[in-house]
């Protein structure tokens, strides 16, 4: 909508995860390095956690795009608390056809698939996204499934991705054997002010923008009210650019960002942003100047 007005090649703040826009902040770079290290160092289990909107899925998609060709990947992404077995979902993720739908047949089909892939010189990687939704007994099934590995023969690797409560679950005494098998892990947190500024500028440059489209005061306001969460940064910056386009303002300043915040608060659509109730109406602020 506003790309041509601001001289952009593409939308800079889309909410759909896109590895082309991956911003390697210190922590995102560290998370990616540890996940890659886990795969290369033959870690049986790896763990990536972070609050909603912190960039887990973008990192995951980047990782998938750059995997070696000798890794067969199965991705489970629609987890929920009603899971009572991991086996049918893993079967579907790897497109394996079992002899029948019994638990024994599903398990045996999975093991046969992993072993066959190993004979072909491949490892199997099972990725479970939103793993915080899995009941403890299903997490324990994953540990038992990893027993297909033997001394010196790594047939299956498992990457668990989820929100921070997954870590709390894994700390329970019943899952100590699983927790002890996690060799690489990282927890993503919100970005700092400096990282937020660099993140916004990175996405704008990747979209073909000139420097200085957002003023420093505007970026400070974006950080304060997004809490440094990438998804919320995207939402606030995107809406600010829509407002800029609407009034034909080519530079996004703090007043424009503040106007977005106030308007969305008034519309009851701003529950995700922090401290909005402390923002004075734009008309009052402008009158002071």
What does the secondary structure layout of this molecule look like, with pairings?
Blueprint: H1 3-6, H2 26-40, E1 45-50, H3 56-65, E2 71-76, H4 87-93, H5 103-119, E3 123-128, H6 136-145, E4 156-162, H7 165-170, H8 176-179, E5 182-188, H9 193-206, H10 216-226, H11 230-246, H12 254-266, H13 282-288
Parallel strand pairs: 1-4, 1-5, 2-3, 3-4
Helix pairs in contact: 4-5, 9-10, 10-11, 10-12, 11-12
- Enumerate the strands of the largest sheet in spatial order, edge to edge or round the barrel: 2-3-4-1-5
What is the residue-mean pLDDT, rounded to a whole number? 90
Order of helices and strands: HHEHEHHEHEHHEHHHHH
Q: Outline, from the CA principal axes? A: elongated
Number of helices: 13
Task: Tell me what portion of residues adopts beta-strand conformation.
Answer: 5-15%
Structure description:
With 289 residues, the protein is an alpha/beta fold. The protein folds into two domains: 26-188, P-loop containing nucleotide triphosphate hydrolases (Rossmann fold), CATH 3.40.50.300; 191-273, Helicase, Ruva Protein, domain 3. It has 13 helices and five strands. It has a five-stranded parallel beta sheet, with helices on both faces. Strand 3, helix 6 and strand 4 form a beta-alpha-beta unit. The longest helix has 17 residues, at 103-119. It is elongated and about 65 Å long.
Features:
single chain, 289 residues, alpha/beta, Rossmann fold, Helicase, Ruva Protein, domain 3, 2 domains, five-stranded parallel sheet, 13 helices, elongated
